[in-house]
Amino acid sequence: MEWKNMNILNIHGYAGTAENTNYSILHEAGYNVISFTIDYDSCEASEVEELLSAAVKVYQIGLIVATSYGSYFANILSAKFDIPFIATNPCVDPSTSLINLSPNYVMREMRYFKKVDQDYHANWENGIFILGNDDEILDHSITKRVIGKAKTYVVSGSHRLNRESYERQFLTEVAALINDVCNPF
Asked: Using CA atoms, how far apart are residues 123 and 146, in angstroms rounded to an integer?
């Protein structure tokens, strides 16, 4: 498979948009990016997982990139389908991280979060992470504890990272992962 033929799934965060910064960086670099607008409040987390799982199959996704809460689903899909993922400011514990943004959503999805955490917690160490050093939404001490020894970059920025603060590292890691997928030996 040639890198230009690989489909990359982009998953935005809570209250985010499909054409977020990760999408823009990849699209402008010539990658095939599949991205959906997800209204997390209007559907159950299990339905989001089903939608994204179907997208992985239909679009033959070779790499997943995600932001914030979208990273939670990237981790699940990565484990289920053995697909690499890169996450910017990942939400590794939505029951803690989203409680101030949407307490009703968190309470509604608590059972799902507990089951998923049991099933997929160990996979976090397989991702590549880019963390803003001044994230006002997520507590990255929790993130670092969960992701363990995974490859991690800490860049200047808040929760909504400025493109210039991470674009070079992001594209370098995307290219390396695609090369690994396209040339496994």
From this structure: 10
SS3 172: helix
Contact present, 142 and 101 (Cβ < 8 Å):
no
Cα-to-chain-centroid distance, residue 132: 14
Only one residue has tokens 């997800």, namely 38
Calculate helix-pair angle for 45-58, 103-120, nearest 10 degrees: 50
pTM above 0.90, yes or no: yes
Q: Do residues 107 and 99 lie in contact, with contact meaning Cβ atoms separated by under 8 Å?
A: no
Beta-carbon count within 10 A of 105 CB: 18
- Rounded to the nearest angstrom, the gap between the alpha carbon of residue 114 and the centroid of all alpha carbons in its chain is 19
Look at residue 68 in the predicted model and tell me its pLDDT.
Answer: 98
Residue 156: count of CB within 10 angstroms of its CB = 12
Give the pLDDT confidence of 103-156 residue by residue, as tens digits.
999 999 999 999 999 999 999 999 999 999 999 999 999 999 999 999 999 999
State phi, psi for 73 to the nearest 5 degrees.
-75, -30
CA distance 168 to 161: 13
| Residues ≥6 apart with Cβ < 8 Å to 12 | 18, 20, 23, 35, 37, 38, 66, 67, 68, 70
**Distance between the two ends of the chain, CA-based, in angstroms?**
13
